[in-house]
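Shipment paperwork, digital attachment
Item: protein structure file
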Amino acid sequence: MLDGHISPNFNDVSAPEQHVSVPLEDLAGQIRTGIRDLKNSLGNALRIALDVGDALVAARERVPPGKWQKWLRENCFLAVRTANLYVELAGRRDDIEAEIDRVGEMSLRAAKRLISRKSEEEIDEETDEKREPAEKEPDATAALVAILDATPPAEITAALATKGLDWFLKTVMPKQWIAQLTAHVARLPRATVTPFLRESEVFRRALSLAAIANRADTKPETVVVNERESLTALSKLSTMLAGEHIDCVVVSVAKPFASMARR
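Attachment content:
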């Protein structure tokens, strides 16, 4: 009975005939009342499902690993799939209750559609975040250059001295600097006034041997020996100068010596 009226029996084929004697206004009242009770029933079912979901979450934390499905079947007569739905609904309680406040009572089916839509929206947001260009990382080289620019040269020199020359040459010095430094050092004045004594001695010996070989009274066999020793001295001089990072041009005297030997 709804609002003092007899509830319609929709399974009774004679119900339409009974409605003939019921005033139309009373039928409208019965319909409104039935819809209200139906909505209340749906809302109560959803709230019960949310409470069941909360209980399932608490129980799952206490059931030993690997025993959850069996525990549900033996103690709750519930399938894992259905239990997962209740747990998911409970996890979305805030969203569901906010929607109920906005539109009124909700059914289980409507709540399920809501949480599915929310999950899809979250996935879309996560995808959009991944598509956004990553924030450009600071340029480490530019940052270090800025630090060097702001550091007094004396402090930079002290820091490099602490690390040592080998560290600088093998670790941080650009390879293209090697040729530049070699050319630069060759043009620098010598740090000491000490003359190239050894180099000068070798050079004088080469000239002396060449002068002897060039004399008209020198025997042919002596010319050959002097030519060979003079070339050896010049080769040694070239190596010594290269060790001092000084470029030099090695002049071959073999042909002049040979021509002098034939005189």
